Amino acid sequence: MSVEPSDRPWRNAFLPYDRILAQVDAWVAAHPERVRRIDLGTTPEGRPIVALDIGPEPARIRPAMMVSANMHATELAGSSVALAFAEAVIGAHGDGVPKGVADDLPPTVAAALRDVRFFVVPRITPDGGEHVLDTGRQIRSVPRVATHAEPTPRWIRGDLTGDGRSRLMRVKDPNGQLVAHDAHPGLLLPRRIDDPPPYYKVFPEGTIAHFDGTVPDPSYAPQLDLNRNFPWSWKPEPTQAGAGDFPGSAPESRALLEFAVGHPEIFAWVDFHTFGGVCIRPDGEKPDNKMDRFDLAVFRQLGEWAEAATGYPMVSGAEEFCYRPDVPIYGDLIEFAYHQRGAFAYVVELHDLFAQMGIERQKPFIDSYRLTREQMADMAQWDAEHNGGRGIGDWVPFEHPQLGPVEIGTGDPIFGFKNPPPSQMPDVCDRQVQPLLRLAAIGPRLALDDATITDLSDGLRAVSLTVRNAGYLPTHVCGAARERSHNEPLWAEISPAPVNGPARVKVGHLKGWGSGLDGSGSPMWPDSPGHADRRLLRWVVAGEDAVTVRVGSRRVGWVEWSSAG
Q1: CA-based angle 20:23:24, to the nearest 5?
Q2: Number of Cβ atoms within 10 Å of the Cβ of 295
């Protein structure tokens, strides 16, 4: 399939994977000097897990940013935003950022982007995304059952009506927990004691494997959740539902793990999910007053940028996004990226449906998902006015081969509820790109200043120069992972070898000039941390050969100066 780079189809539709791959390959063909395709791994159904590698000189190590999306199969909007971001940074490395994406980007930010390498994974779960688009199955991450699943009765989603989608079924039951709304008959509400019958139970459209006359609970388990399969604070079933057999047991999560370990220069990572209209940041297990103070200040700055551009607040995972009070989510990606890889990482839950419905922000934010019956009716009204009624739909009779008379819903909440309506996607893409570009601009950045060579006696020469961190963040990036083995200090190397010491010396880490939003500024006591952002280096060399100095690390890359020019 041929796709022109200017088509931008992701802004108006949720793309099948072959079209995503075609778009990736089109960018590679159109911009070979600054865009490459990396195949991170292969799914069990044989699809490549693909990343875009954006930026010139791929062999040159420098600070890098990672953007990933569609970890959960139904959360397709993230792929569109990831592609929009890729388009923006391709432009930033070329003739400029596409108009409409970042018109207000300051020149200093645009310039900083050119020193950053970008990795963009538009769909972490290609198998899951295809099953959702092809069948409408509401699977968590991947279309396969976890290996620990027992041969007991469980639901197998499928298309019983032949309309190409797998939706929901409702069954009349005197113990049903749901009733139909009077004004929106397709909407089911939690039952109250004064509600008259009929009462309903709801199950997935499909059949029951190992059916023995009992109807099993249609929960996610034993489905695998890729965002519970990462090694930071991983817990096995049943402590953490969807955890998998061990961290990285799924090829999709393992591909991300191996790539991240192979690229210690990644200093920022944003992972796109849906829905809610919120950014979720570390720490996922402890409150803000237990976090590294500098890290928290930077996250507050990132949150301010995100909310200004998107309207989405940034909240603590531990304080505002635990499904059960004081019980964290174990084994998720952003905690791995932050704690183990030392990246400023957060999740974006796209689609601010609650805000669009006029619901005030709840605190903790997780309570926003616990709607009252009145708010559920408002959602149905929003669906009718802004989504063509696609999310709620109606119910049609059907004779189920195991359960007898049932009704199958025509609503498709994947489109409009779990993801924004396609008509909103251009605006969603544009707004999300802005804060990501600012995040990309805060990485550490080395510079060499004031290099001099002074002749001494007896054929000796004194060499001096200053290495400076011109970036916002320190060279160790964040405090949470400063001591990780990959987060090595800066080293300085000189050639020819000096006569007054080793040719390779440890420089250590350098502070950046940024401080985040730490609330400590005052016009009465302005202060600066001295020269903690730079280091003066001196050597004595013999002879007349050209002198070369190289400073850096595998964490932030290298800069070089030569007396030969």
Answers
A1: 90
A2: 23
Taking CA atoms, 65 is separated from 23, 27, 91, 296, 358, in Å, by: 20, 19, 16, 19, 34
| 404-409 and 395-400 beta bridge pairing | antiparallel
Tell me the pTM. 0.92
Amino acid letter, 469: N
Q: Is the peptide bond before 275 cis (omega within 30 degrees of 0)?
A: yes
Report helix, strand or coil for 428: helix
253 — pLDDT class (breaks 50, 70, 90) = very high
Burial class for 59, CB neighbours closer than 10 Å (0-12, 13-18, 19+): exposed
CA distance linking residue 406 with residue 395, whole number of Å: 9
Q: Give the C-alpha separation, 524 to 521, whole Å.
A: 9
Tally the residues of the chain.
565
β-partners of residue 540 are: 462
Closest of 271, 259, 299 to residue 283, by C-alpha: 299
CA distance 450 to 81: 43
Burial tier of 90 (Cβ tally within 10 Å: 0-12, 13-18, 19+): buried
**Contact by Cβ (8 Å): 281, 297:** no
The amino acid at residue 467 is V
pLDDT, mean of residues 196-221: 87
Q: Which residues, in sequence order, are bridge partners of residue 190?
A: 178
Neighbours of 201 (CB within 10 A): 17
Q: How many CB atoms lie within 10 A of CB 458?
A: 5
For residue 427, the 8-state DSSP code is H
Residue identified by tokens 């620990």 is 148
Copy the structure tokens of residue 11. Answer: 């802004």
* Partners of 541 in the β-ladder: 461
CB-based contact 77:273 (threshold 8 Å): no
Q: Give the separation between CA 473 and CA 478, rounded to whole angstroms.
A: 8
pLDDT at position 104 is 66
- Give the chain's domains with CATH numbers: 9-132+226-351 (3.40.630.10), 150-221+358-409 (no CATH), 446-562 (2.60.40.10)
Query: How large is the C-alpha radius of gyration of the chain?
Result: 27
- 87-143 pLDDT, tens digit each: 999 988 776 555 445 556 788 888 888 899 999 999 999 999 999 998 888 888 998
Instruction: Residue 383: name the closest of 409, 348, 350, 356 by CA.
Output: 356
Query: Which of 436, 471, 479, 235 shows the shortest CA–CA distance to 348?
Result: 436
Strand, coil or helix: 121: strand
